[in-house]
């Protein structure tokens, strides 16, 4: 398969054929050279993905409680490192997950995981605090542990 990376280069792998994925940072007009140092971002990602989080948050039970049928479009608003994004992806194998975060570094992290080809139903995008760019066709908007900037997310969602 040929996947376009966020640098524009292609990586070859002949195991599957997937279309190139446009870099969500470029699409949002973000200069990748102005992002935080990756070491700092990696520390935050490790904090978000720490093993004890599953003990108290029980993410598999949370996703199960959503009672998804497997074909829905799910938005993970304030997705961070994708802690729930990739669990949601498994729950909707014939659907799709749109991971939205206001932090370009988190979107870049998810996008790089998507480029591996293991998560063909996941797309990441940068979402501004005042307009996260929710699709009109979402079946479920999932929000968890979002302190800022989407505290007023209810104004973006129609019942």
UniProtKB/TrEMBL annotation:
Pfam families: Methyltransf_25 (PF13649). Gene3D superfamilies: Vaccinia Virus protein VP39. Residues 74-148 form the Methyltransferase domain. InterPro entries: Methyltransf_25, SAM-dependent_MTases_sf. This is Methyltransferase domain-containing protein. It comes from Novipirellula artificiosorum.
């Amino acid at each position: 398969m040929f996947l376009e990376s966020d640098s524009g280069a292609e990586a070859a792998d002949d195991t599957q054929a997937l279309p190139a994925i446009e870099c969500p940072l470029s699409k949002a007009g973000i200069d990748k050279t102005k992002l935080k140092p990756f070491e700092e971002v990696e520390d935050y990602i490790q904090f978000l993905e720490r093993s004890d989080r599953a003990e108290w948050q029980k993410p598999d039970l949370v996703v199960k409680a959503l009672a998804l049928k497997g074909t829905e479009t799910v938005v993970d608003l304030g997705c961070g490192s994708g802690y729930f994004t990739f669990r949601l992806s498994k729950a909707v194998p014939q659907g799709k997950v749109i991971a939205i975060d206001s932090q370009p570094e988190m979107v870049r992290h998810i996008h790089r995981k998507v480029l591996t080809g293991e998560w063909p139903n996941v797309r990441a995008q940068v979402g501004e605090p005042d307009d996260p760019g929710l699709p009109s066709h979402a079946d479920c908007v999932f929000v968890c542990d979002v302190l800022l900037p989407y505290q007023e997310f209810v104004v973006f969602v129609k019942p």
